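Regression check, NAP case 468:
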Amino acid sequence: MRIAGEAVTSSRKQQVALPFDGSPVGTIFQATAEQVDAAVAAAKAAAPIMREMPAFERAAILRKAHEKLMSRLDEFGKAISSESGKPIKEGRLEADRAAWTLLFSAEEANRLCGEVVPMEASPAGKGHMAMTVREPLGVIAAITPFNFPLNLSMHKIGPAIAGGNTVVHKPASSTPISGILLAELLAECGLPKGALNVITGPGGSIGEQLVFHKDVAMVTFTGSVEVGLRLRNLAGMKRVTLELGNNAAVIVEDDANLDEAVPRCVAGAFAHSGQVCISVQRIFVQERIRAAFVERMVEHTKKLRVGHPHEASTDISSLITEKEAQRVESWIGEALEHGAKLMTGGKRTRATMEPAVLTDVPANVQLACREAFGPVAFVNSYSTLDDAIAKVNDSDYGLQAGIYTRDIQKAFQTARKVHVGGFMINEIPQYRVDHMPYGGVKMSGVGREGPKYAVEEMTEPKLICWKV
Ligand code: NAP
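Current build output:
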């Protein structure tokens, strides 16, 4: 762990293993309750230093970290792949994205500004002027999931530092290494001691202690709906942002360019074995092109190479645990019992599952109405576009969705009617660049990430008014 700039251990060791075969990757230590308090105390002690640090210095630290990370993409990519089990090419891509998130955060540090308030719009405001300035919140607790251990941590830590805050980071227990490497990287780039602390251990104990802590001003959480809801209820008056689950849907109209739509749907469904919060899970295809779409989707899916995550040619590797793979397998089984058809894949070996494509999945089975978070997508057909929009909206979630069509009018009408945080036209809902506003409606969460938007959540406007 990293507390107040020091490497810290405890008497409770925990092994980190490669999810593909269980081979050891590293050893971490579970924080004690005293160490959680010490991490918050260190962040609190560093808060005045970060608050007083001019924006250009905060930006310079983040920019330097961007450059250093760019020069170490292979090393970080390997660490990501080893702890999360994602294919090495995806690990490297995540490291590259995280470096960009740092750069975008650096730019936002220099853009933080308030506004002039038109006081004289009110008779009582006559002779008064006012402006707002944005101030840091103080200590931010960042709790992150296993699926993007570096970039999703960066989406919290980069903007927090840009806004002049300090952080206590609790990474997922299965993927703690990237977070520790990130803290070391930022320390090398001049981040003051205590500005970023990393504690590891079970979310149910140390995570909750962190969320309860009276000196924590904000909780920024990415993870499951169940945990997110619980944390929101525990957080009391603290500011909370939640980036939660989804069962992303895409509509494919009969005028769509299938040469583009099919390979993108395959990529969007199976990257990181579907363990992406915006993974393509529900594909609604106009009934006239359904047969052609399914045939091509199966053909493309069969080309994906399943294997060890460290092999350069691997497209699909394991899920995070065998238990998760068994869960996905049972959801496929339930769908098949209720009339769905398996077109390809679905075979499981320990934690690894061949990418599965189903058709005719009824709306009431788990695969349709919950988040699969595994290498499985289904193709159902529809007759009218309104019918398709209703199917997309028939979800507890609302992170991102999309449509493939050549008709711009239909595309924008659909964009207006689908209830999500982000809508993609001629692109899959799994599409994200790291500076765009990103977040969900309904059970998918509250608040937005993307450095510009996260910095806003992580600072507050202070009004300064004077009588002239
Ligand atoms: P998770 O089980 O909710 O865990 C996320 C983090 O919360 C981990 O660090 C975990 O620690 C911690 N935690 C667990 N219980 C806690 C508690 N009671 N109090 C405080 N912290 C607690 O999620 P996951 O399985 O790692 O990630 C998968 C989920 O994340 C999916 O639902 C996915 O959709 C969502 N996700 C959303 C986004 C988005 O941007 N919307 C992005 C990526 C992932 P431990 O590991 O120690 O349990």
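Comparison notes: DSSP finds 15 helices and 24 strands in the chain. The chain has a mean pLDDT of 98. No diff flagged against the previous build.
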